[in-house]
Amino acid sequence: MKLKKLYKHHNGKQIWRILPTTNTKIVLEERDAKTKEVFFSCLDIESGKKIFSELQLEEKNWIGIESIYKDLIYFHAYRKPDMPTHKSIIAFDITSKKTLWQNENYVFAFVYDDKVFCYQQRFESRVFFALDYLTGTVVEDFGIDVTTINQIREKADEEFWKQNYLFPENFIRTKTVAEEYQKYLQQILTNNVVKGEVSYLKINDLLLFNYHEISKTNTLTNIFSAVDLSKNKILLKEMLDKNLVNLMPESFFVKDNFLFLIVDKTKLLIYQIKE
What are 215-266's pLDDT values in tens digits? Predict the structure, then answer.
């Protein structure tokens, strides 16, 4: 197994979200730590070529990404600055770099089968609708039929997991370690002062994992490693962050043989996994 570093993305802003598209692109939501303004960038997932960079919409602070579907980004606003409740749907086309439609009356739920499923919050219940994903036109009114909406959402979730996402899981400390990767992770726990769990992902003979080591100053250092188990060889060791007070979960993930690492909260490193 090999890891090939493709590129590093760094705009000097804090990375809040990383969203790969289904069409070989990646969208980042980043925020300026001082002004709290939000910026969006889109890169070619393999070359790192910028399709757009540091895009801002009319609302520069209280806005975020709901989802990406067929190169359309669906943004949301917030009802109040001090409340996380979402409002509005803004459909933005990555290719043309233009807003296709916007609707203030609905709240995004999920997108599936070329429809944006959304709702209006009434006094005692939610009323659900399906909109055409390209135009925002209402194509179906579900009323308060939550059962049907949940059934469709389950299908949408199944489609998501077919997109080759791989996320780490926590290693369970146990007295019995049978497999090679278990022995390796157990050794990490034995040889280091670790807080929290070791998060790991095993892809054939490739073991990816990160853990939080307690430093001499009683702060935490988030360390990532990649190991070829067949050769017992460390392919990569990266300090993702240091001087932490709290644990930083979800430090890496894999999609379509691309490894995504967040370093110092502001840098994105992309590696390609090769046999």
Answer: 888 999 999 999 999 998 999 999 999 999 888 878 899 998 999 999 999 9
As given in the structure block, the two tokens for residue 232 are 């017992």
Is the Cβ–Cβ distance between 221 and 213 less than 8 Å? yes
pTM check: above 0.85: yes
Residues 6+ apart with CB under 8 A from 136: 89, 91, 100, 101, 102, 103, 116
The amino acid at 47: S
Helix (H, G, I), strand (E, B) or coil at 146: helix
14 phi, psi to nearest 5 deg:
-75, 130
**What end-to-end distance do the CA atoms of the chain give, in Å?**
5
Check: CB of residue 150 under 8 Å from CB of residue 163.
Answer: no
Which residues lie closer than 8 Å to 176 by C-beta, 6 or more apart? none
Give the pair of three-digit tokens for residue 163: 């997109």
CA-to-CA distance for 90 and 116, rounded, in angstroms?
11
Phi and psi dihedrals of 188, rounded to 5? -60, -45
Q: What distance in Å separates the CA atoms of residue 191 and residue 213, rounded to the nearest whole number?
A: 10
